[in-house]
Design brief:
By secondary structure, the protein is mostly helical. The protein folds into 2 domains: about 220 residues, no CATH class; about 30 residues, no CATH class. Helices cover about 70% and strands about 5% of the residues. A 3-stranded antiparallel β-sheet has the order 2-1-3, with no helix packed on it. The longest helix is centred in the middle third of the chain and has 33 residues. It is elongated.
Length: about 290
């Protein structure tokens, strides 16, 4: 009974820590990160923020207050799931290089913290626009300017978070490249290139803003392709099973001159046959003799 329970526990442990199972969990989490992050940044954000226009930004927040609240929750959920994604990938790939896997988790944790902090500015901007904060002393123009300042802070906070959106892909790509066949090497290279493109987009936006706007749509394409490819690979394939070659059967050692086995089959002890072979055991109705070459 005890042995049966032990076997059951071992099977459950194997199922829990199965690489394919972990990969599929990571794929689902990565998909959720993409959905909620895309909703918050791609759908909600353009409906509330207009750079340099305080009055329009305040009106947008007031008109879409319910949507903005959903966007805040989506951002918080996205950041939380991203942390769990990093932890799952750590469990999956720590055997490849534990240092790189640990660095990946640290970068994810920092990026997720910045995303959560950004939502504070977004939510405070919403409260200021909807009158939840008494800003009568500032007047309409002053309160609108404060709203824009809060949303500007959130806007540039997203750019800072992009540092870690890109950096975490570099150790992930390295781990995929070095995974000994679990992931294709091209996917690892693509993830590293995608991470570098995030950083190029960020630097261009800060250093050469006009040029950054022109290249933004193009430089983010490799990043999108890399992350979508990783999500699909995790969901559809998980990890590829690496075929291990069967060990070759060991051949008997080469025969040495003078090594014979004598079969004692006669009743009078007479040796009836002698043949060269490799003696393995002298206890089974055979006696192995060693005859000098001389």
């Amino acid at each position: 009974m005890t042995q049966t329970k032990t076997n059951t526990n071992e099977k459950e442990t194997k199922m829990t820590t199965s690489p394919k199972r972990l990969a599929r969990i990571a794929g689902v989490l990565y998909l959720l990160v993409g959905i909620f992050g895309g909703f918050a940044e791609g759908f909600v954000y353009p409906k509330m923020y207009v750079a340099g226009d305080a009055a329009t930004t305040a009106r947008n927040l007031l008109a879409n207050s319910g949507l903005v609240r959903i966007g805040v929750v989506a951002d918080l959920f996205n950041a939380t799931v991203w942390v769990f994604l990093g932890m799952t990938l750590y469990l999956l790939l720590k055997h490849v290089h534990k240092g790189a896997a640990s660095a990946m988790v640290v970068l994810v944790a920092i990026g997720a913290s910045i995303v959560c902090l950004n939502t504070v500015f977004e939510f405070e901007g919403l409260r200021a626009a909807t009158g939840a904060i008494n800003l009568a002393a500032f007047g309409t123009a002053g309160s609108n300017a404060l709203v824009l300042l809060l949303l500007d802070t959130q806007h540039y906070g997203i750019f800072i978070a992009k540092i870690f959106f890109g950096l975490w892909l570099v150790p992930l790509g390295y781990l995929a490249y070095k995974s000994a066949g679990w992931f294709p090497k091209w996917l690892g290279v693509l993830l590293i290139v995608g991470g570098a493109c995030y950083l190029v987009d960020l630097l261009a936006a800060f250093l050469v803003p006009d040029f950054g706007k022109e290249i933004h749509a193009f430089v983010t394409i490799p990043s999108a392709i890399a992350e979508i490819s990783m999500v699909l690979y995790l969901l559809v394939i998980g990890v590829k099973n690496v075929k291990t070659s069967k060990p070759e059967k060991s051949l008997p050692a080469p025969l040495r001159s003078g090594h014979f086995v004598f079969e004692n089959t006669g009743a009078d002890g007479e040796i009836r046959a002698a043949r060269p072979t490799v003696a393995t055991d002298g206890r089974a109705a055979r006696c192995a003799g060693w005859i000098d070459d001389a």
